[in-house]
Amino acid sequence: MDETAPVSIENESRPSRVERLENEGDIAADYLEELLDIADLDGDLDMDVEGDRAAVSIVGADLSQLVGPKGEVLDALQELTRLAVYRETGERSRMMLDIGGYRADQKTSLVKLAEETVARVKETGEPVRLDPMSPFERKVVHDAVAAGGCQSESEGAEPRRFVVVLPG
Fold this sequence. Notes:
Layout (H helix, E strand, L loop, with lengths): L8 H5 L3 H22 L5 E7 L2 E7 L4 H4 L4 H18 L6 E4 L2 H23 L3 E2 L5 H13 L3 E5 L6 E5 L2
Parallel strand pairs: 2-3
Antiparallel strand pairs: 1-2, 4-6, 5-6
Helix pairs in contact: 2-4, 5-6
């Protein structure tokens, strides 16, 4: 290696992908902490990096009012939190928010649904259309279907977009 070659200072000062995601998680947690304080709600925040996104969870007391029916309030809070991260960083965030384990439980149910659907598609050789789902739900199903050895695609328009499971 040529020791006289110029060194790019720009690359040295740029944070790593994990550092950027951890920063997103910190910004999101600060925003959510303020929100909990304003609403006078108790809850502890956990932050992590899962794959290519920051993950923030609020755990603790009964937080069902922050989840809402079918996770609608949770989805709205996630979008508001992503906007807060965008405001601070200038970059679009894919941060995932979970409250009281709602998304974790939902993910478990969706993986089971996908596995059962894959088995049915393999048995019959016929495509199966699932009920409309949110983008999060569709992503979980697509991943589980691929792991099960079949293919899937999304069809329809929001909010009635759904997954079709196809033979592998």
